[in-house]
Amino acid sequence: MIVYNEKSSDFIDHIYENKIGYVLKENVYKKMNKVVSEGEFRSWENSLPEMAKVVRDSDIEKDTHILLEYKLPSTEKRIDFIIAGRDKKGKKNAMIIELKQWQKADMAEGSGIVRTFLGGRERETVHPSYQATSYKRFLMNFNESLYTDLSIQLNSCAYLHNYIANRSNEPLLNPKYNEFIGDSPIYFQFGDRELAKKINHLVSEGNGAEIAEAIEHGRIRPSKKLVETVGSLIEGNEEFVLLDEQKVAYEKVRSIYNQAQTKTDQKQVIIIKGGPGTGKSVIGLNLISAFLKSDAYVEYITPNQAFREILRKKVVGNSNHMEVRNLFKGSASYVDTPEEYFEVLICDEAHRLKEQGHMKKKIPGENQATQIIRSSKVSVFFVDDQQVISKKDIGTVKLIEEEAEKQGAEIHTVELESQYRCSGSGNYIQWLDSLLGFSDEHVELEGDFDFNIVPDPHQLIEEIVDKRNGRLLAGYAWQWNKKPVNGELPKDVVIEEHDFELPWNDPNRIDWAIHPDCANQVGCIHTVQGLEMDYVGVIIGKDLGYDPETDSLVVRRDEFRDRGARPAKPKKGQSDPLYDLVRNTYRTLMTRGMKGCYVYCCDEDLAAYIKKRMEN
To answer: Where are the transmembrane segments (predicted)?
Structure first.
């Protein structure tokens, strides 16, 4: 969707008449039913007059076309500025120009990452040239008009009109960014003449209506090149080989999809139920590859941002497959998606679906499950009811079934049982379910999974982090003060009797689970759900304890610090829903390990109870 598509002469008139912000504001409301924020309005008023000067000085024909605020399909990203026309040889060209009001930036760790002042504080973000290149590659791989009509040449650059570059040592021009700058040049303040020359070279002869039409109305579908790329990345990776019932589930979903092609008026909803380590993500990644090969428009959804980033890295590694990364989306991405816009949507960790996304508008009668089912002909949900860990988590099997029935969908259910995590020890999962009261069956702990109770948290660091290169995790029994203190993360996870203190995981590192700098941080449930590591050390806070007199687990509401996840106090005579949420949390944390899990309990009676259950 494009908010503004006009001739360059009309664009310049709107600037000189001080109308451009109001025109865009009105168009956003008409086309997207959204109210523009004051900050976004100001950004238009500040940046677009600078571009009008460049366009005026580029000496181009009046019927060159200007496209503003092009919303990349099924994303929240918008391209600031596109100019389209023909060059002196009659060739069709379009140029993406990413506009920034930055005044200063510094280098940061990671490919294409910089630090600058955004949203009231300094934070990490992508290099402007990387951003421009990623938008260009998105269009070239998803807009059918552009990857089939090879006569349109797409270019990209970044323009930082308020930024005075340091001639001797400019961070944004550091050689580590050369790959992106070479593809998308960066222009600073006083670089407007060079940018004007580039625009003149590409679109001086105007006649941009046809090109603008192709960009705005091109059918959105992955290109053959992208399909082949995804296939090679997944099929060539031994980590994604399907075993036994994983293969059965995979083939059943494909069969339902093939049958759905003959049922044009019938939605299909497939619910795949499976506990921790049953290989749900392996099935999902193989499915997205297969559906892309079938010429289906498909996306992979994960509500958890950290899990989404790890999945992306598992698929693309450290390479710059930006277009592949764009296939992975958050669960709040489908608020405005039209009916059956996609052929298939695959939702992993569906138990983390919410009523609505953070800072997203609320549509009466809809939740994220509603939106996913509405947006797709076939919807696949991977779900585990016992991983619901917050009052905000609504994605139960029952709710998905109810939403599917409301939309007249045919419902299919597949169950996974084989265990591929925890050393393949189904016994450990059964024992843990018995320990935490999810099962009445008495199970003895046996098998190869390395489980142990340690007497103090320092030993947890020694055994898990130092010896086994694992990660520490904890229940939400400590406050999380997100603001750094003197540039360092606050050490919130404190156990005074052992003189122990460590910070929660860095909220700016969504790859916390694999980043070496994060080894001595404690992962919270919202970061680690869906992830897996060889070894984990779990700190069980005082929110979960054991009462020897009643021989039962107890959940202490006053020790549970996650206010956003905590349900209201139950009425007299009713059971406390927090009891299930806390147990679900620790079940999830204690099943993140592939080879082993060591535990420290703040409640001594709980530690003694677990030891007793281990011995029995």
So the answer is: none
